[in-house]
Amino acid sequence: MLFFxxxxxxxxxxxxxxxxxxxxxxxxxxxxxxGILEAVPDPDGWYPALLAGDGQVHGRLYESVEGFxxxxxxxxxxxxxxxxxxxxxSLYLRETCTATAPDGTLCEAQAYRFNRPLPDGSHPIPxxxxxxxLEEQGVRAFGGLRE
Length: 147
Hints:
Layout: E1 2-5, H1 16-21, E2 25-40, E3 47-64, H2 70-79, E4 92-100, E5 106-114, E6 123-124, H3 130-137
Antiparallel strand pairs: 1-3, 2-3, 2-4, 2-6, 4-5
């Protein structure tokens, strides 16, 4: 199974879920998906929201390693506040998207798309690169849900 991450689940992120998931995934490399990116404020840092749109969102592809199973996927879904049984109540939806590698290769990957109206204080990320935006703004990424 392939995943496209573009924010707090990228390898090297400062939260327990990112550290945990990267024991179960192997990095494939940089990639983009079609869409636009917004930065959403939270008392524990900023997190990105991937929305439909005509831009490019920058992130990385990861492939699940042997032994990755339903319980692992459920834990990722819980981090993203995605309930497959109640998508209407989910903060994010896990959807299949088409990702583009730097060499132009296309592949299908799972990505989490924002599923609510943007909260007040959200900011567009015109570059589509969450980590670069954090650095430019001098703010920190969401680090909640620590274990």
